[in-house]
Amino acid sequence: MSIPATPRTRDNALDALRGIAIVGMVLANLQGSERDAFPWIAHAAWNGLTVADLVFPMFLLAVGMSLPLAQDGREPQVGVGRIVRRALLLWLIGFGISLIAHPSIYREDMRFTGVLQRIGIVYLVCALTVRSTRTWRAPAIAAFAFLILHGVLLYLPAPGEAVASMEPGRGMSAWIDRAILGGTRMYGGTFDPEGPLSTLSSIATAMIGVAMQRLAMRANRPLVTWSAGAILAAILGGLACAWWPVNKTLWTPSFALVNAAIGLALLAALKAAWPRIAPWPPVRRLATLGGAALTLFVVHDFVAIALGWRFGAWKLGAQVYRDILGTGIPPGCASMLYAVLAGGLSITITLRLIRRGWTLRV
Questions:
Q1: First vs last C-alpha separation in the chain
Q2: Hey, is 274 helix, strand or coil?
Q3: Closest Cα to residue 25, out of 48, 59, 65?
Q4: Per the CB 3.0–4.6 Å rule, which of 23, 202, 231, 290 could disulfide with 18?
């Protein structure tokens, strides 16, 4: 059954979910010290799941859920050229910020992948899918196909290796990264956490969002649809754990499904509570930030760059963190306080930009 061609208003609960994701990214990225940070706000060393590992998949899920609201029933249709242009701009912004943060003229020092670059690729594939289909089945089948393809490739031995491996720097994921990108020096020289192979399951994460949004748009009881989707994803994710570890860097099928379950459950909770929580100022701020997520992400990147600039042997961020540690508070609390201060500055700048109408639109 196709989606009715009715105009859609903005989904404030979805904006709040996106706001939770982007604020979580900011806090995780701006920790004073990776070594001192609380374990739950640092990414898992390899296999495992922390709060920091939830935020990017949640954001991609929201990207997928936003697309049917923006495109279905729209006349005239969003053009292919506009979709490609937006995806390319997202990639270029991400690459440009990476080049500013780590200037280099050498290819091996440049980061061709990254958060915004991955969002651009995921958006491109999902937006073209939404444009060319009308039902929930096509994105659901695409999500399943991407997960299975990725899962199978992880079980194939890489060229030059006798057996398949999902260990750091080994296996098909690392080999493809080195073959396409030449490897990376930025993350320990193993392979990029937003590398080519793991992009398959990242696309699947957003495709799940597309399928669920389309199902909810035609459901008599959308809240039941969101809740049922969360339960189904949790069951499938639990089953997938028998074959693949939950691993963010590899973005394994189990990781994608478990995170989809968490994201869908949180959205269902937000929608159920929305009539009561919508007037709360913190919730309104989250929805506002979620609606300007690209602006906040770019602002927080430039705050991090400014804090990391060297003036000889002196760095502003390092000095601020030493001063916080000098107060005697525990290292974990010091790292979180630094993130709250830097993140608060990023959020304050972003809210001021929003009030002036100066937000990034691509």
A1: 31
A2: helix
A3: 59
A4: 290
> How many CA atoms are closer than 13 Å to the CA of 137, on its beta-carbon side?
3
- pLDDT on residue 2: 42
With b meaning 16 or more CB within 10 Å and e meaning fewer, what string describes 136-161?
bebbbebbbebbeebbebbeeebeee
Cα separation, 147 vs 245, in Å, equals 14
Predicted pLDDT of residue 106: 78
The pTM (predicted TM-score) of the whole model is 0.93
Q: Say what the pLDDT of residue 7 is.
A: 45
Count how many Cα atoms sit within 13 Å of the Cα of residue 11 in the half-sphere of its side chain: 23
Q: Please report which residue ranges of the chain form alpha helices under DSSP H.
A: 12-29, 52-71, 80-101, 115-132, 137-154, 171-181, 199-217, 222-240, 253-277, 281-291, 293-308, 316-325, 331-356
Residue 262 identity (one-letter amino acid) = I
Longest dimension (CA), the chain: 64
The CA radius of gyration of the chain, in Å to the nearest whole number, is: 20
